[in-house]
Specification:
Layout lengths: L5 E7 L5 H12 L3 E4 L5 H12 L5 H22 L2 E5 L7 H12 L3 E5 L9 H5 L3 E3 L2 H13 L6
Parallel strand pairs: 1-2, 1-3, 3-4, 4-5
Length: 155
C-alpha cells in the first residue's frame, strides 16, 4: 500500500474554503492523495445543461438538464474514489450532499461526514453509514494520515 495514490472525492457545501483547507493539509503532510470534487461554481453547475444543450422555457427542465450533466461527473468520481468526504454546511439544506453520501454508502465507499454539532440529529442516518464524523477539515487530514501511513499525531 506504500505506492498507492488515494483518490478522495470532496462532496457537499460549496460556499466556504473547506476543500482548500483539506488540500493544503494534504500537501503539508505529503500524503499521496488526489482530490476531486463537483463543479463548485454555482452558476456554471446550475446552467451547464442549457449552456451546452440549449435553453428551456420551463425552469424544471432547465434544472433537470444541468442535474443530468452534473450526474455524469458525480457518479464517475464517486465510483472511482477510495474515500468520499461529504460536508454539510450551515446555510443550505444540501440535498445533493445527502444524495452523494447515500450513493457512496450504497457503493460501499469509505465515507467521512463533516458537519457542525447542531446538525447531528438531522444527519443521524447519514452519519450512521459513515466510517467517521468530523467537524473540521483538519480532522479529515488527520484521518487520511492515519489511514494511509498509520500516523497518529501525538504518538
Amino acid at each position: 500500500m506504500a505506492d498507492k495514490i488515494w483518490r478522495v472525492y470532496l462532496s457537499g457545501e460549496i460556499h466556504t474554503d473547506w476543500r482548500t483547507e483539506i488540500a493544503r493539509g494534504i500537501e503539508a503532510a505529503g500524503l499521496p492523495v488526489v482530490l476531486s470534487a463537483p463543479v463548485t461554481h454555482h452558476a456554471a453547475s446550475d446552467d451547464c445543461g442549457v449552456a451546452i444543450l440549449g435553453p428551456e422555457a420551463d425552469k424544471a427542465w432547465h434544472d433537470r438538464k444541468g442535474a443530468l450533466m452534473n450526474s455524469i461527473r458525480t457518479k464517475t468520481l464517486i465510483e472511482n474514489a477510495d474515500i468520499v468526504v461529504v460536508r454539510f454546511g450551515e446555510e443550505y439544506k444540501q440535498w445533493n450532499a445527502a444524495f452523494d453520501a447515500g450513493m457512496a454508502a450504497a457503493l460501499g465507499k469509505n465515507l467521512i461526514v463533516m458537519h457542525r454539532p447542531e446538525h447531528a440529529h438531522a444527519l443521524k442516518e447519514v452519519c450512521a453509514a459513515s466510517s467517521a464524523v468530523v467537524e473540521r477539515p483538519e480532522q479529515v487530514v488527520e484521518i487520511l494520515a492515519y489511514v494511509i501511513r498509520g500516523e497518529l499525531s501525538g504518538y
